[in-house]
Amino acid sequence: MEKLYRKLVNYLYVMPAVIWLILLLAAPLGVIIYYSFLTPDLVTGGVINEFTFDNYEATLARGMYGLIFLKTLGLATATTVICLLLGYPLAYWIVKYAGRWKTLTVFMVITPSFTTYLIRLYAIRTIFQSQGIINSVLLNLGLISSPLQILYTPGAVMAGLVYSWMPLMILPLYAALDGLDPSVLEAAEDLGASGLQKLRTVILPLIKGGIVAGIIFTFVPSLGAWLVPLMLGGAKVMMAGNLVQLHFLAAGNIPMGSAVAVVLTAMIVLILYIAIKLGGKEALERIA
Amino acid sequence: MRSNRILMVAAIVVYVLLWSPVVVLVVLSFSNNRLGVKWEGFTLRWYIEAFSSSAVISALRTSLIIAVVTVVVSTVIGTLAAYGLYKYKLRGKEFLRTSILLPMVLPYVVMAGSLLIFFVKVTHIPLGYFTIILGHVVFCFPAVVFVVLARMARIDWTLEEASADLGADTATTWRKVMLPLLAPGILAAAALIFPWSFNDFNFSYFTGGVGTQTLPVYVFGLLRYGDTAIINAVASLFAVLPIIILLLMGFLSRQKTVVY
Domain locations in chain B? Predict the structure, then answer.
């Protein structure tokens, strides 16, 4: 009896966390899964207790929503690739050339993200506006005769996504590169490897975990983005997250919003699973 | 040598990209332009207008209260969970660890949206401070668990046994031995999650209802009604303050490492 009691006491410490996760993460997710199979009452904005697959059919099979999901995947992929292409040189430069400024240079990557996300997006909006800096400079240089429409284009949304998640790509890349043994690189150079050969055959295999972590950190939040497209894309460029927000907050079609949310979440969980399988345990440990 | 140059140019381009929005914002906050989008001479007008507004002050207070409560609740829950996970053989430990990671990778719009439905349609909890804090703790406490776990791997656990051997009860051991040992980890976790909660827009917007406006939600409202010049001033302060605090912290911690 006392042994059982002692065993139960061991579980006491994790109990608050477990209860919090069950009540405020699992239960709400369960509720939207349940709602996603109900019929929306379009007159009252409520729901009718009738089981249906309609919401999923509308999310996946009917043109408009399917297209938004494809666009979301496309934007997230492009964002991840650009973050990797821009982030890698910076991470490499810090490790190799920053020397005693290493801490400061890493710090400079992170610090902008401590400003409220919304406010930084608003600043980007100011820059992109028709009277904003980019347009003023181009107009003054005589390169264009009338302001370019930058806001509310897919390009603006992608720029916002790249800006938002870039530090999360750079940090794991930096950590992986910093952990490399410099003598391995020197050996490659001594044996006559060109820059590209060195990158492909020596560096990339060794920092695979860091790359996978960086990709997860940029791809996953880009997929779930809703504030970036809302601020920079308006009604013109919508992502899956905007459909959730639209149905939950504005339109009041909860079953439809729930179905979109469930599909989006399932997609992300699947991608995480594949990424962790591909990147092995190292990526998982890096996240943890 | 040439590749060195190219790398440096690439690095500088990325730094410029990362910093330009913040810099532009601060510069424009001093511009005498009603829309706050271009330079038309220096003024402090927007700062004065912003800080004579009681709405700004009240939104700031709301954000601070929520962040402080979130940090306290999250560090308690997170530290206890880390202790349980570190010390005991528990059934389903791996599953629990993975579940604790979930709030850090699931899309915020889904978590905040599902919480809104859960509060409004199922539990009928009125939206406000309470519901915002419940949500903030969900995405903040996992970070505490992992930061404190990392600290636990580096402390001397015989001190805990010694305390128990010398007759201290569990509460005393926690107060006199465990908390001081874990303090660096707990403080680091608190410093990490405070800005998360303070800056959060997702949960505050979805589960805040009409009455409770945190600072980001208030700024979002200003954007809708186009009072943009004041926003530049408010935004600049909140863009620059965390950076100054961080730089100071970095500077101080560097001083400290020199001393030791």
Answer: 54-225
**CB-based contact A10 B223, cutoff 8 Å:** no
ipTM surpassing 0.85: yes
Instruction: Using CB atoms, pick whichever of B4, B101, B238 lies closest to residue A97.
Output: B4
- Considering only CB atoms, A11 lies closest to which of B3, B90, B135, namely B90
Q: Do B246 and A96 touch (CB under 8 A)?
A: no
DSSP H helices, B52-199, are 54-87, 93-105, 108-117, 129-152, 158-165, 170-173, 179-199
pTM of the model: 0.89
Under an 8 A CB cutoff, do A119 and B243 touch? no
Side chain identity, residue B235: A
**B54-225, which class in CATH?**
mainly alpha
H/E stretch holding B21 reads helix B2-29
- CA dihedral B119→B120→B125→B130, nearest 10 degrees, is 60
- Cβ-based neighbours of B96, under 8 Å, separated by 6 or more: A14, A17, A18, B85, B90
Does A126 contact B201 at a Cβ distance shorter than 8 Å? Answer: no
Average pLDDT, chain B: 87
Residues 52-91 in B contacting A (C-alpha not used; CB under 8 Å) = 76-78, 80-81, 83-85, 87-90
- Residue in chain A nearest B135 by alpha carbon: A24
Contact (Cβ atoms closer than 8 angstroms) between residue A40 and residue A48: yes
- The answer to whether the beta carbons of residues B50 and A157 sit under 8 Å apart is no
Domains of chain A in start order, with CATH, are 67-287 (1.10.3720.10)
Mean pLDDT by 10 residues, chain B (260 residues): 79 92 87 77 86 86 94 97 91 89 92 95 93 96 94 91 90 91 91 89 92 89 76 79 72 52
